[in-house]
Structure formats: C-alpha cells, structure tokens
Amino acid sequence: MNVSQGVVHPVEAPPRLQTEGAGNMLLPRVRMKDLQGMPGTVGGVFLRFSQLLFAVVALSVMATITDFASVTAFCYLVAATGLQSMWSLALAIVDIYALLIGRHLQNYRAVSLFSVGDGVTSTLTFAAACASAGITVLIGNDLGACANDHCTRYETAIAMAFLSWFTALPSFLFNFWSLASR
Amino acid sequence: MNVSQGVVHPVEAPPRLQTEGAGNMLLPRVRMKDLQGMPGTVGGVFLRFSQLLFAVVALSVMATITDFASVTAFCYLVAATGLQSMWSLALAIVDIYALLIGRHLQNYRAVSLFSVGDGVTSTLTFAAACASAGITVLIGNDLGACANDHCTRYETAIAMAFLSWFTALPSFLFNFWSLASR
What we know:
The structure is a homodimer of 182-residue chains. Helix content of chain A is 66%, strand content 2%. In chain A, helix 2 runs antiparallel to helix 3. Chain A is elongated. In chain A, strands 1-2 form a two-stranded antiparallel sheet. The first copy, chain A, has helices spanning 16-19, 42-63, 72-100, 108-142, 150-180, and strands at 5-6, 103-104. Chain A is mainly alpha-helical and 182 residues long. The first copy, chain A, has one domain (36-180). Chain A is built from five helices and two strands; from the N terminus they run E-H-H-H-E-H-H. The two termini of chain A are 19 Å apart. The A-B interface holds A 23-27, 70-73, 123, 126-128, 130-135, 137-138, 141-142, 173, 176-177, 179-181 and B 23-27, 70-73, 123, 126-128, 130-135, 137-138, 141-142, 173, 176-177, 179-181. Chains A, B: It holds the Pfam family CASP_dom. Chains A, B: This is CASP-like protein. Chains A, B: It is a multi-pass membrane protein. Chains A, B: The chain crosses the membrane at residues 52-79, 85-101, 113-139, 159-180. Chains A, B: It is found in: Cell membrane.
C-alpha cells in the first residue's frame, strides 16, 4: 500500500504544491499538509514522544505499587497506558521513517487508520485516568484513608495518564481535520 | 450575528446548491451541508433529544439516591449530566428554530461554538461516567459491599450518562467535520 506522497518538487514551481491533486480547481486551496503536529512532521514526532513518555512514566509508577491489582480500575489504567505507549511508539517510528525519507503521510487510508487508532487509544487512556482519579479522590478525600504514600504514587500515575491523553488529543484532532479537509 | 444561510432555491437550478460559495471552482464539490445529524437537520434534533433524554434520566435516577453527595465523583456526575442536559436542550431549541424557519446553521462562528461546546460537555459527561463507574466497580466487585439496591441505581445512572455521551459524540464529530471541510 502506497501510504506516502513525495514532497520533493522543482524549486522553480513552488505554488504547484498547493494545487497538487486538486483536479480542475482553479483556485489554489490552502491545505493543512505541512502543519506541525500532522503525521510525518517534526511536531507530530514530538507529540508522539510526549504521549509515549507520559504513558511509560504512568506505567512505571503503577509498577512500583505492589497491590494495585486489587482494584479493577488500576488494572485498567495499567492496560490502557500500556496500549497507549505501544501505539505512540509505533506511530513515532512511522513518523521518523517518513521524515527520514522526506515523504508526507497523507494517504486517505493511512490517515483514517491513524485517526481511528488515536481516537480509541486516547479515549481508553482518558477513561482509565478518570476511573482511577475517582477512586483516588474517594480514598483520599471522602474516606480519608491515605495511610501510606500509595495515594501520592496513584496521583502521580493518574496525572501522567491525563498528560498522555492531553498530548494524544491534538494528534487525533489533526488527523481528523486532515481527513475532513481533503 | 447572521448565523444561518437560506436553503430556498428556485427549483429550476438545483445543482447550484452544491457550488454555492465555491468561488472559481469548476467542479461541484460535495459538501456535508445536508447530512443528517448536522445542526439544523432532523437527525441533529433527534441526537439532541437523545442526549437530553439520557442525561435527564441519569439525573433523575441520581436524585432518588439520598446519600450520593458523600462521594465526590457522584456529585460530579450530577453536575455533568445537569450541564449536558441544559446544553442539549438549548441546542435542540436552536435546531428546531432553524428547521421551522427553513434555514441551515452553517455560519463558521456558530459551528465553532457548537463544536467547542459539544466537545467540552461530552468530555465532562464521559469523565464523570468513568469516575462513577470506577467507584461502582470498586464497591460492587472489588469490595463486595453492595448491601442495598444503591448499586443498581448507580449503575443505571452511569449507563444513562454513557449513552448521553455516546449520542453527544456524533454531534461533536459532525460539527468538527463540517468546520474542517469548508
């Protein structure tokens, strides 16, 4: 499957970049092809690495707590951040590859796949973070049962999961916007 | 602010509907103007009333539980479904008004406002439903402390909040798509 389009053009005709693939349209249409944060851009790689970093930190903090498995929501948080980190790592590799060979990832099928994947993984991460936050607030504030330092670690992991979702959201919105604006 | 565009055209020239506002473009471009689910369509009104119904049912079920206020997440659920129902009611009224006077709601500012509002309210509803679901699973499955029928009522309210989010999501995606594809 050809998922990329070349960006190398003769320097004599830069305006053609914008009308490329536009058929009989006379007006050059402003495309979001080169906006930072899209797949295959430096901004996109930065977003992917941010997601990966926050998800891995959340996973690592959860791994230091021995008895997290007694609460379903915390198991779900571990699973969701694990999935998020794998997805972000895979997409970061794809983005870096696209950057290295100097091509854009603008194929409709590829962008659709990225968009759906980003939507699903970010929603799962957000849901897990919310469920875990609800339980941590219940234990800490409502019941006042934060005897040891577990609460702080849970809060750190949840904050990292929220940050991972927060950096995954622009990736989803950019992909969805790019899908709609073609 | 003029937030609507007329849809009444002479019957002799129906193809003009698609090229309207397209400037010098020669190809008639497929617009999502009339897709059911967009603001100002019958599908849009149906989505709004579904959101409103589910949010109001969730709110009503929570109101029958006397001691929900002891848990922060349940208070948040009540607040979020209250906000969702008010937002959906307001947008349903706007949609019905647009239908009655036979105009589309396609102004850029209006669609941006609807899109941001839908994004915020649906995210809040989803977060509240997830947090409450985490606590209900903790009480019911992990601790096995569902002595009275409160758990069933909480589960009903949470399911209704999830359904409200699920019907708010298409509204957001349609608005966002419409914003990107103009």
